[in-house]
């Protein structure tokens, strides 16, 4: 006797007798091979495939006397035995039908097996009564159907913008939106949006039209969304970070009649406005908008009108637009506000791309309840350390949308001094362990939200509790439906499954969206009439997700029915990735798979024509797909694996992903920049050494890890590139070049000065801020390290040099330019701080600001030496040293002369090109000091609090000399010392002492 694998196909339309007869015939044919050992059968199956079977059925049909009345009895016994399979059924037919279930408790719960036994007994009874009935007519056990209903709440005829207008009427001067650039009140938000609505209508844009919004995350984005809604239109988000090909496809499918954008992005929008399909183009920064009416447009918008269309990944290989009416999204944001207990005092984070619907929850759950939206920048939202700083500085109280994969890396940067009281994850299942860790570190409530875009953002929410537990990797359940939502678990015939059984999730209620824009066939397949419960007479959406309702009514997610998956919280269909690769010339076949457990990645496999290479494919898809859909690895293969039926074997494909994939033969890193970048990759990726031509994604990196590398390259190496540009600078060689390549010197008179944020807080447009000045090389890197450790809630800004200073720049010119920039940035009370030459600049700017009537509270000078006529010989010697150093060739000669030029010894780690840029800035600034016999002092000079922090021991000649020079200018000068050197003040062993002195200097009167 041997075990025969059996492939069983259930056809609901076949009568049981016919189906059973065909199955028995096939089994009889297979008996010809039953002598073949099972181990031999397994050897014919790819090792990556599923096991041949996970359930064994044994039939014991021994001769026994037949009962007189030919009756059947059902008996059930529970036994405990060891077995290598999750489930074993032993069936005996004489003297009566008896079924014995043996199961692995690590895989199945007793309640699940009990339900299975109940369903089997019901099926046997059904067959005994109606053997000719179709399989689909079998009735499930008479248990309560698996479903959940949210409580009913009447939302009236509210619209999305109407909710915001109501809050504006209540508190017009309350802050609605806060960004790193400032704040916008509800009144300003309302007026600016009204102007956009009037302009759109005046341009001929009719109600119920689709209007694109092509803007980065910020106050302008919120204004534009409200303006489009007030015009009676639906907005279509167009993320500027998306590749042009992707945006073009979205524009073509959505039927836009207009695009709202910014003048800096106008080139893209003007391209969409040309050609046969003319589209109006409105710039949010157009000064002429101020001439439009401030009043609200008199236009009736119905709750069933569309609010927005957002595009998701499509199974056909093209994005599909989900059309969401006001009714559904209003119900959602009000329901979320009730569950999160939002109040006007809350600060709600907004860190999701506008192209994803959680951004709607972030913005409008806050505005609908009179709270403040804290808009986190695109780049900050993807770097955990920067995001943590933004959440802290903005005093965010509610995070309504964050992906668990990002939270996993963010939580280590959060702490109990943050203001967050509630945090909600979405996009992926939330592990209980991560929820517990987050709740512990922040002291806040943590929840997981479930629901597809088609259900107007989400349908249910589950709070983490101390009683949540389970094995390692246990996830939170799907939770309870939001108000007015219904969740049904249905079988393939759309019948409710009993509690404990697995069914597909169908979402009903007013949150169900209208469907897929201009895709009637796909809409009809997924949006179905509903005759169940409170959703009767309406529509329900078939999610494609499977779940089981446990005895305590908890819904547990089981899996998907198709190739649609989520990576870093972004829903995508692998067919769209396949289609993008197949569109690349030279690609004969292509397929993508998702690998990894907790950290999912996309791996792509391509069969290439001669002359094509995987790097070409990688570059092409990056210009077609959004960042979330770009494969982390592209691997060339001779052929794609197939199943016996000819279908693609994605499971085998997943096993072919190499642990590390070196794309081409390459040399190891050589230059200091290459060595540093490669070491950084090893640190972030946890891999072995990389060659200069290795691709970051080919080594297993993902977008979040790339953001971490970008942040380090920017802060540690001064790399001048955006996070979006990093997607196309993915090799060690290219990233090292960005660290090493010097900018072209600016033309005479060109503006190379800029004030940039160093550390932002919620008070950035309130009473006070701190402005730091660059050192003698034009760098602010010292303050980046310092502000990561300082206390206080004041924002820090820095004055820096973004290009290369023209030769002959005078100190007075720099002081005048910096003073003008600060004056134009706002009228807050200021504290100025500078290190080395930056202290000299800070003092000069303080004098000019005071002369111009500015309010200056403190001046902090860190080891700054004022220019004096007596120093002229020394600076002339330094000039000669710099000129000599610029001509040096060998590393030994450079190292010897660094000290003569008073440059840090670790500059030896720079490449020759980076070093020459450093020397150029140092030379120009040194010349500026030579040209200034003394600081140009407009009368009256600064007479406020001045603090000098000097490197050296108290009373040493150096300390006394520097103190004397500054005290002549500031008689009430406060002096502090650090036993260190000029360059050693910011080293690890002294920076904490420096931080304490700076904190003390920046507090008090």
TrEMBL record:
Domain Carrier: from-to ranges: 668-743
Pfam families reported for this sequence: AMP-binding, AMP-binding_C, PP-binding, Thioesterase
InterPro entries per UniProt: AA_adenyl_dom (IPR010071), AB_hydrolase_fold (IPR029058), ACP-like_sf (IPR036736), AMP-bd_C (IPR025110), AMP-bd_C_sf (IPR045851), AMP-dep_synth/lig_dom (IPR000873), CAT-like_dom_sf (IPR023213), PP-bd_ACP (IPR009081)
Domain of life of the source: Bacteria
GO molecular function: phosphopantetheine binding
Cofactor names: pantetheine 4'-phosphate
Record GO biological process: amino acid activation for nonribosomal peptide biosynthetic process; secondary metabolite biosynthetic process
GO cellular component entries: cytoplasm
PANTHER family registered for this protein in UniProt: FATTY ACID SYNTHASE (PTHR45527:SF1), NONRIBOSOMAL PEPTIDE SYNTHETASE (PTHR45527)
Protein name: Amino acid adenylation domain-containing protein
Organism: Phytomonospora endophytica
